[in-house]
Amino acid sequence: MQSKLVRSAAVLFPGLLAGAFGYGAVNVLYAFREVPLDVRFTFHVALMRVNGPVMQILMGLTILSTLMLAVRSTSRSRWLAAGASGLAVTSFLVTRLGNVPINQKIKVWAVSGPPSDYTEILRRWELLHFTRTGCALVAFVLAVVVVTGLLPGEQDRAGRAD
Asked: pLDDT for 13-68, tens place per residue?
């Protein structure tokens, strides 16, 4: 039972993380580009206020679940699961060190207006968002490969046989 829980969590949380970031990259980001700046900034601030704690928790659960999968796996599966965990850490670091500081600037812009170089800053935020989205997506794919046993001849302690 425990190994099924580990495998389930190792697919669920990275999938939710990749899906949330992907939705933002495909839908929200392009919607932001279509509305006036004051609407974009106001919505961005409101969205980040809600998203902040939710996404941090989800990134933490992704890191933890893929790390647990790595510990319970062997051979190449262990390396792939550890890679998934590393990519989730990278996604977290990109968010905390890249996107969050820009979000703080946008919060000020929503009140006082953007600086002259705001388009470059928004472009950097988007590039960082695509980077963390890509990390989350690859982490999810790696977790799926490990959990589903898509590596021929691989057996692990995560218990695909139970």
From this structure: 999 999 999 999 999 999 999 999 999 999 999 999 999 999 999 999 999 999 99
In angstroms, rounded to a whole number, what is the distance separating the alpha carbons of residues 102 and 115?
Answer: 12
The per-residue pLDDT for 161 is: 42
Residue 82 host element (H or E): helix 75-94
C-alpha to C-alpha distance for 84 and 135, rounded to whole angstroms: 8
Q: Is the pTM of this model over 0.70?
A: yes
Distances (CA, A) of 88 to 50, 107, 122, 151: 20, 26, 23, 21
Closest CA to 17 of 119, 110, 121, 142: 142
What is the span of the domain harbouring residue 9?
2-148
**H or E segment and range at residue 103:** helix 100-112
Q: Does residue 139 form part of some domain?
A: yes
Q: At what angle do helices 75-94 and 2-23 cross, to 10 degrees?
A: 40
Residue 113: inside a domain:
yes
